[in-house]
Amino acid sequence: MEDVPVSTDSIRLGQFLKLAGLIDIGSDVRSLLEDGRIHVNGETEHRRGRQLVRGDIVTVDDTELRVA
Q1: Count of CB atoms within 10 A of residue 67's CB?
Q2: How far lies 17's CA from each of 13, 34, 60, in Å?
Q3: Phi, psi of 48 (to 5 degrees)
Q4: Mean per-residue pLDDT for 61-65?
Q5: Cβ-contact 27, 17 below 8 angstroms
Q6: Which range marks the domain in which residue 10 is found?
Q7: Distance CA 57, CA 38 (A)
Q8: CATH at 42
Q9: Domain count across the chain
Q10: pLDDT, tens digit, for every residue of 41-55?
Q11: Which of 10, 26, 54, 56 could form an S-S bond across to 14 if both were Cys, CB 3.0 to 4.6 Å?
């Protein structure tokens, strides 16, 4: 699991994935969500604008990232 530091108290899922380098542009997250490839804290996520806070675990395929 990789920690991805954020400078704010919360961050939107699309912004977080861009910050982590998993997507190039925010709209790329849509296809990942539609395919059910993104999980937040173990649950399949369908909202691009989901607010993440420190400690949340985001899984995309086999990559696990923690909001730090």
Answers
A1: 21
A2: 6, 15, 9
A3: -65, -30
A4: 95
A5: no
A6: 2-67
A7: 10
A8: 3.10.290.10
A9: 1
A10: 999 999 988 999 999
A11: 26
Task: Please give the structure tokens belonging to residue 42.
Answer: 């173990």
Using left for φ > 0, alpha for ψ between -120 and 50, and beta otherwise, residue 3 falls in: beta
Cβ-proximal residues to 9 (8 Å cutoff; 6+ apart), any chain: 53, 54
Q: Over 80: is that where the pLDDT of 26 sits?
A: no
Adjacent-strand bridge partners of 10? 53
Q: 15: which 2 tokens?
A: 């912004």
Report residue 36 as tokens: 């059910």
3-state secondary structure of 52: strand
Q: What percentage of residues in the chain have a pLDDT greater than 90? A: 88
Q: Is the pTM of this model over 0.85?
A: yes
DSSP tally for the chain: helices H, then strands E: 2, 7
